[in-house]
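[Automated response] Your request has been received and processed.

Submitted sequence:
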Amino acid sequence: MTIMLTGVAFFALPAGIITAGFLEEFRLNRTRKTQKCPNCGELIELDDHNHEPH
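Generated structure:
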């Protein structure tokens, strides 16, 4: 039983740490691609389309 619990902890702990790091990088990458228009404050994505000033 101790070996079973140790085995679960051996895989679950690193998986949680890796997942948390992946989600943090994904959030930061998404934030870098999105900016606000200085004129109207609308969120714009830099890759998909160009934003026309108002």
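Summary generated for your ticket: The mean pLDDT is 79. The helical segments are 2-33.
If you did not submit this request, please reply to this message.
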